[in-house]
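HUMAN:
Just now I want nothing more than another pair of eyes on a protein record. I would be glad if you read both lines and explained how they fit together. I have put the entry right below:
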Amino acid sequence: MDKLIIKGARIIDPTITENDTNDIGNILIVGGRIAGYPEEIGGIDAEMIDASGLVCSPGLVDMHVHLRDPG
C-alpha cells in the first residue's frame, strides 16, 4: 500500500472543545485513508510532505446550496 506522512502541520479538528487547541502534528495516510497521527515518524517507510507552517483541515462542505442554481 502507498504510505504518506504529512509532518508538522497544524491539524484542525472540529471535534475539539473550547479548552483544547489545534495542535501541530503528523498525519499518516495509508491507501488514501487516514491511518493515524504518529508522534514518532522515524521508523515509518513512507513519502513525506513537510507541512511546517501550513494547516491541515477536514473537507469543507457548503451547507447552504441550492441544487437548482449552478455554482
Summary: The two ends are 36 Å apart (CA to CA). Residues 14 and 61 are 13 Å apart (CA to CA).
